[in-house]
């Protein structure tokens, strides 16, 4: 049975976890499907991505029944040092990082529980929109392990160190409201999927080359020193000014119409 569906409409990719009967718990088939979906979208002409879960939850975390398959195996052989993507050592990390590396904006629409593997998948998105009744948890400590799916790359960019430690040490669920206060959630919406769709439509209506350049620039701004950021600003701007997409933006503005990009 398929674990993930990918559809496209008006330059927006919709990636849906479809294991609703298990609250979209992540097993090996879903790991494979999520990574494949990410690679497919990255190679498409989509201008924005929405990641969501069908049924009652975004993702309940790892399917614990699947962990039995690891019993008796060498953890080092399972986790290190096989690369499955740029910088990752294993498939589990790719579940989040394939989205974090995406050169177009990714929006996670979260409802219900978003635990463990689910929260790390959501962290791979640029923006997280959650329903007021959503719950979040860095769940790994419950099972005597640490977050290992890219969460320790992505979560420190969003929350303070004390919040990161509290979430990780306790494995306790927090409300969407608390998650928003702590910076884990971008905004709350009664219908997060509809809100994500509206936002994706706004993004998809902007210059595709400028959006991709903006995402690259933000990534540089978050990690590089001032000199490198200033250099990147200028280099990326040179690649945009006077080019077809920018000229179409200007023409559409003067003509009071929606821009049409080729």
Automatic annotation (TrEMBL):
Swiss-Prot/TrEMBL GO biological process terms: fatty acid beta-oxidation
InterPro entries on file: ClpP/crotonase-like_dom_sf, Ech1-like, Enoyl-CoA_hyd/isom_CS, Enoyl-CoA_hydra/iso, Enoyl-CoA_hydra_C
Keywords: Fatty acid metabolism, Isomerase, Lipid metabolism
Molecular functions per Gene Ontology: isomerase activity
Gene3D superfamilies per UniProt: 2-enoyl-CoA Hydratase, Chain A, domain 1 (3.90.226.10), Lyase 2-enoyl-coa Hydratase, Chain A, domain 2 (1.10.12.10)
Name of the protein in question: Enoyl-CoA hydratase/carnithine racemase
Species whose genome carries this gene: Sulfitobacter undariae
Record-stated family: Belongs to the enoyl-CoA hydratase/isomerase family.
Protein's pathway: Lipid metabolism; fatty acid beta-oxidation
UniProt cross-references to SUPFAM superfamilies, sorted A to Z: ClpP/crotonase (SSF52096)
Top-level taxon of the source organism: Bacteria
């Amino acid at each position: 049975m398929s674990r993930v569906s990918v559809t496209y409409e008006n330059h927006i990719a919709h990636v849906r976890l479809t294991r609703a009967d298990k609250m979209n718990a992540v097993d090996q088939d879903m790991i494979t499907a999520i990574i494949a979906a990410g690679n497919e979208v990255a190679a498409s002409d989509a201008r924005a991505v929405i990641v969501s879960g069908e049924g009652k939850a975004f993702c309940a975390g790892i399917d614990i029944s699947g962990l039995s398959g690891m019993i008796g195996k060498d953890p080092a052989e399972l986790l290190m040092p096989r690369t499955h993507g740029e910088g990752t050592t294993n498939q589990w990390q790719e579940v989040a990082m394939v989205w974090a590396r995406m050169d177009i904006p990714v929006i996670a629409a979260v409802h219900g529980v978003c635990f463990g593997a689910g929260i790390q998948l959501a962290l791979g998105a640029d923006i997280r929109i959650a329903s007021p009744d959503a719950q979040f948890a860095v769940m790994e400590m419950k099972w005597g392990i640490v977050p290992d799916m890219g969460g320790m790359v992505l979560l420190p960019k969003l929350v303070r160190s004390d919040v990161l430690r509290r979430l990780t040490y306790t494995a306790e669920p927090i409300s969407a409201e608390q998650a928003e206060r702590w910076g884990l959630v971008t905004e709350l919406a009664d219908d997060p999927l509809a809100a994500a769709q509206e936002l994706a439509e706004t993004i998809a209506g902007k210059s595709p080359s400028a959006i991709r350049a903006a995402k690259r620039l933000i990534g540089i701004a978050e990690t590089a020193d001032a000199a490198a950021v200033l250099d990147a600003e200028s280099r990326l701007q040179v690649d945009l000014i006077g080019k077809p997409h920018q000229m179409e933006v200007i023409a559409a503005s003067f003509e009071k119409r929606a821009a049409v990009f080729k």
